[in-house]
Design goal:
- The complex is a heterodimer of chains A (586) and B (50).
- Chain A is an all-alpha fold and 586 residues long.
- Chain A folds into three domains: 376 residues, Sodium/glucose cotransporter (Up-down Bundle); 79 residues, no CATH class; 117 residues, no CATH class.
- Chain A has a two-stranded antiparallel ribbon with strand order 1-2.
- In chain A, strand 1 and strand 2 form a beta hairpin.
- In chain A, helix 8 runs antiparallel to helix 19 and helix 17 crosses helix 18.
- Chain A is globular.
- The relative contact order of chain A is 0.18.
- Chain B is an all-alpha fold.
- The termini of chain B are far apart.
- The chains are: A mainly alpha (586), B mainly alpha (50).
- At the A-B interface, helix 3, helix 10, helix 11 and helix 17 of A face helix 1 of B.
Amino acid sequence: MTLAPMDWVIIVVYLVGCIVAGVWMRRYIRGVEDFAVAGREMDLNLGIASLAATEMGLVTVMYAAQLGFTNGPAGATIGVLMAVAMLLVGATGFVIRPLRDAGVITIPELFEKRFGKRVRWLAGLAVVLGGVLNMGIFLRLAGDFLVHTTGMNPDYLQWTMTVLLGIVLLYTALGGMLSVLVTDYIQFLVMGLGLVVTSVLVVGSVGWGNLVAGLSDAHGQAEVYLAKRETEENAAREAVQALRADQGDEAAGALRKRQQQQREEYLQDNKAQLAKEGVLVATAEGKVQAQTMANPFNPTSSRGLGWMYVVWQAIFQIAVVTTWQTMITRVLSARDSRTAAQVYRRTAFYFVGRFALPGLWGAAAFVYFWKEGGLPEGIDSLTAMPAYLHLSHLLPVGVIGLLIAAMLAAEMSTDSGYLLTWATVIYNDLIGPCLRRPMSQKAKLLTVRLLVLVIGLFLLFYGLWYEIPGNAWDYLAVTGNIYLASVFTLLVGTLYWRGAHRWGAIAAIVLGAIGPITFLIVNGIVKSPRWDIDPSWEIKPEAAGFAAFGLSFAGMFFGSLLGRSLGAAGTSSTTTSETREESSRE
Amino acid sequence: MNSVLIWFWAVMIFASIAWYAILLFTVGIKGGYEIVHMARSLSQRPEDKE
């Protein structure tokens, strides 16, 4: 796929439009409240555009397409659960209404009212660590999309992404949330158009009936293959154990290594034959893996996502929509809590498409490569979708430019929203509480702007110029979960439980991090090619997720009981909602 | 069971495409007005907030 002059025109017009609109909004910035929450002037439709644009990043497109490639349409179950969570929270106002009414700029600021400065600072640290590290790989994955969709020389990738981030930094540092809102609006339109047109072309090219039949056939063949493979793997492990008993650890280790090498060679040499059995061989970053289609329509199937994963996601999504600071920033920027709840209700169904549409492209990519006799060299489940768009030539001139502009829009809107959010938390909750005298408006504004630039520089180094070791998705799950479980527990405790105590809050933050970190360490060991490690010891993401939430809630409950029984100062015994009601009566 | 799920996912995917197209128009038009309104409201505030 080569970019024609018309494609370039579309991309350049879009980029220039964003810069002009973003820089223009700078004139309205007068203080930190304008910069961080747009002077709380955001209305319903602008809120919908901003929330949708920020939460639909290029990372999301890649990740959702990967789920479609491995699980078919059932991979979009997460999107359906998120939409249900948004609808429930929007309808009941759970967390978001009292949070908006509290008049805070960030979530940790709310905690100070209930638990004191230390908890605010600690929660701020968890939010920033989880958030900034989570964002660390956005540029790298976005670059992967561009390289595989356009066939761009990977040597230019780092410079392209550096220029893109430079543009985002320019308007975010100058205009803050006001620029972010206006550029999000432009990006929402470009992104929406790109997603609709590409999805229509994908369905038109494959045909819905062919897609359903292809995915069902591929899954049926994969079931036969996986049953056979399980028998082979058990026999290989038994042989290793027998040799260990007979000749010791060293000989057993050598045999296991040889088995793994033979397996990789077999996969490499029999790509076309395996494709006929419903197996696509993925080769990327020196790894050779067999990729099969799970049950493409039933998410609870044992070879698919599974019941436990679906239940965990249902809980996890409630935490995401009430806790993730970039989403909450839109709640806090809204005119009032009613508008915030309305934004949630109206945006809810958008989150189905957030997973279903890129998932559709991913599922179509699986059927395409399955029929073509396997994946090309260097392509895996993550890069299969962009490679499919590139190699299938289904996008005509003009639409290619639109898709690239749409994906740049997705990336830029997410980057700007995240940069601003984390910079605001660092200023508001880490630096602010340590100051003896409050800064002037100018000094505050300068500090937040500098923080935006510093986070941008960190992203450049960490996400582009530094190669992240290990699996990107384990990394995303861990960094996100560290923050979500503990902050969600704190929010519920702060807003709805009179018995919540400072000790419980601290215990919730610390214990909430244990589950995800254990997941990273144990899986790092289990996935290493050691003969004596049983793969069934691997911790599933849902188990780590349940553990994080369970430990965090237990920490809050027992820590609060302990703090109260020992008579330690818990700072305030009324919930924030009650405090608000009291002040309004006064 | 599977045929019900196939219908479910077909509805989700096609409804998403339709919903995105509808939002493009409604949010596109109303969001544009809100930006103009927000800019006016911000420029009419008193000069110094400190």
